[in-house]
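Service request form, structural biology core

Requester: graduate student, group of Dr. S.
Request type: structure prediction, single chain
Budget code: on file
Notes: please return the result as structure tokens.

Sequence provided:
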Amino acid sequence: MTDVQPRTDAEIQQDRTGTASTRRVVLMGAGGIGVAAALAACGTDSSGTNPNGTDFNNNPVPAGSEGTTTGGTGTGNGAAGGTVLVAASKVAVGNGVILDDLVVTQPAEGTFKAFSNVCTHQQCKVTEIKGGSIICKCHNSQFSIEDGAPTSGPAKTPLAATEVKLEGDDIVTA
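Core staff response, request fulfilled:
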């Protein structure tokens, strides 16, 4: 029995390098379309001007600046015009509470401090107060509850401070 090739080697080579679609080319194209669709599905919604999507405030105001709003648990204005942030009874000595925009701490009995709750390293929100430290778990930066200064981790700049005072039973902006 003899081996018979109906096409020449030149014709076979032209099929491999020419414009004829091979199964491999078709499968690679289909795979490329699938990858593009998967990547498009993984993207974030960047509606508006915020490239991080809609899960962040589109117009943040640094803590202590004009326009700072209540910390989330406050209910209005104090008698002297300061914004109520939190009831003093909710802020334990040596600890603090994390609000929408601020962290309110009580480093010593009757001394209240407030700082931005946005880490100065890469702007993650701080998530915990433990052992006299305000902790950002994104990269483990830690800040003092006394003055907002970084105590460990990659952050080098202190948290922005906001003046607060005790007014009646509430902590209010000064």
